[in-house]
């Protein structure tokens, strides 16, 4: 970290604000690694905070299945450390697709209403966790489909988790997007990779807005 800071200062970009994620058994003071702050990154820490004691007898007994309500309650009760540690919330978790049945961690019973209440509480106290202005809240994740953690619209909940995020952060129901994007067009054969990527990104943004009909920036 010292070398990184030295290089950043030498390059004229200033002293970087470095956040250490609490993962792989390292939940110590961020100062031990030379960082400025720490951050939760659920499901890392599942064992350390005792969530395995809440195992549910569902499905393959080799999987670890935990109630979403137990996850929320346990993380909300975690003591605040003496150093700055940003909180992390998740709309759900099920990494069976990635790890396979018998090796997976499943958070069972997540619903947008409980997620919204949890996120709102974390957002409201986030400002007390930093001396650099408004606090930071991490959400795991936007589109981690292989681990069952995503805010993107799906067949089961539609855009409910996106709307819950908007209400928790903005304090009101998100409004329908008024952004009008041109219809996607086929890239000419001579387009370079930068142009192709730009077109693909525009089509992706348009698709997300059409699926959710929500403008989180409003």
What does the model show?
This protein has 218 residues and is of the alpha/beta class. The protein folds into two domains: 2-174, no CATH class; 175-218, no CATH class. The chain has helices spanning 2-10, 68-76, 96-99, 112-126, 160-170, 193-212; strands spanning 19-21, 37-39, 64-67, 85-86, 88-89, 93-94, 105-108, 138-139, 143-144, 149-150. The strands form four sheets. A three-stranded parallel sheet has the order 1-2-4, with no helix packed on it. Strand 9 (143-144) and strand 10 form a beta hairpin.
Write the layout of secondary structure elements.
Layout: H1 2-10, E1 19-21, E2 37-39, E3 64-67, H2 68-76, E4 85-86, E5 88-89, E6 93-94, H3 96-99, E7 105-108, H4 112-126, E8 138-139, E9 143-144, E10 149-150, H5 160-170, H6 193-212
Parallel strand pairs: 1-2, 2-4, 3-7, 5-8
Antiparallel strand pairs: 6-7, 9-10
Helix pairs in contact: 4-5
Salient structural properties:
12% strand; 2 domains; 3-stranded parallel sheet; alpha/beta; 3-stranded mixed sheet; 218 residues; globular
| Spatial shape | globular
Strands of the biggest beta sheet: in what spatial order? 1-2-4
Rg result: 20 Å
Helix content: 25-40%
Question: Unreliable segments (pLDDT under 50, ≥5 consecutive)?
Answer: none
β-strand percent reads 5-15%
- Based on DSSP secondary structure assignment, what is the total number of beta strands? 10
Sheet with the most strands, sense and barrel status = 3 strands, parallel
Structural class: alpha/beta
List SSEs in N-to-C order.
HEEEHEEEHEHEEEHH
**Count of folded domains:** 2
| Head-to-tail CA distance between termini | 38 Å
Q: Give the averaged pLDDT, no decimals.
A: 87
Given the structure, what is the number of helices?
6
